[in-house]
Amino acid sequence: QLQLVESGGGLVQPGGSLRLSCAASGFPLNFYAIGWFRQAPGKEREGVSCISSIRGITNHADSVKGRFTISRDNAKNTVYLQMNSLKPEDAAVYFCAAGSTSQAMCSINRSSYDSWGQGTQVTVSS
């Protein structure tokens, strides 16, 4: 059974950076599309970034384009979300998720994913 564990969250000032990690066990991570999602209090869970299986095609929500980068280290079976120029509105619990999609694309729609991690808190505040 695929298990995902997020880490790397914390408190950062506006304009700062964080790198989140999504470590997988139970199956090679590059066989799956991996998505990062976030949920702020009182809001719906929204897709942030994703990376497709095998080919590693990436996709980002407009709100994070140019600031967030998703990448994968197959040797470590880990997907990363590098977050730069953080804003207060980026504060949320961040989740990674795994789903089965084509190698040529990935979706940031939560319905495309069926295995989820427990989340890691990101706080952006001065």
Structure report:
Helices cover 0% and strands 47% of the residues. The strands form two sheets. Strands 2, 4, 5, 6, 9, 10 and 11 form a seven-stranded mixed beta sheet that branches. A four-stranded antiparallel beta sheet has the order 1-3-8-7, with no helix packed on it. The relative contact order is 0.32. It has no helices and eleven strands.
Mean of all residue-level pLDDT scores = 95
| Tally of separate helices | 0
Helix content range of the residues, please?
Answer: under 10%
Number of DSSP-assigned strands: 11
Distance between the termini: 40 Å
Please mark out the parts with pLDDT under 50 across 5 or more consecutive residues, or reply none: none
Structural class: mainly beta
- Overall 3D form: globular
Radius of gyration: 13 Å
Report the sheet with the most strands, covering strand number, pairing sense and barrel closure.
Answer: 7 strands, mixed
Percent of residues in beta strands? over 45%
Task: Give the SSE order as H and E letters.
Answer: EEEEEEEEEEE
Summarize the structure.
With 126 residues, this protein is mostly beta strands. The protein is built from no helices and 11 strands.
Topology summary:
Blueprint: E1 3-7, E2 10-12, E3 18-25, E4 33-39, E5 46-51, E6 58-60, E7 68-73, E8 78-83, E9 92-99, E10 115-116, E11 120-124
Parallel strand pairs: 2-11
Antiparallel strand pairs: 1-3, 3-8, 4-5, 4-9, 5-6, 7-8, 9-10, 9-11
Keywords:
11 strands, seven-stranded mixed beta sheet, mainly beta, 0% helix, globular, four-stranded antiparallel beta sheet
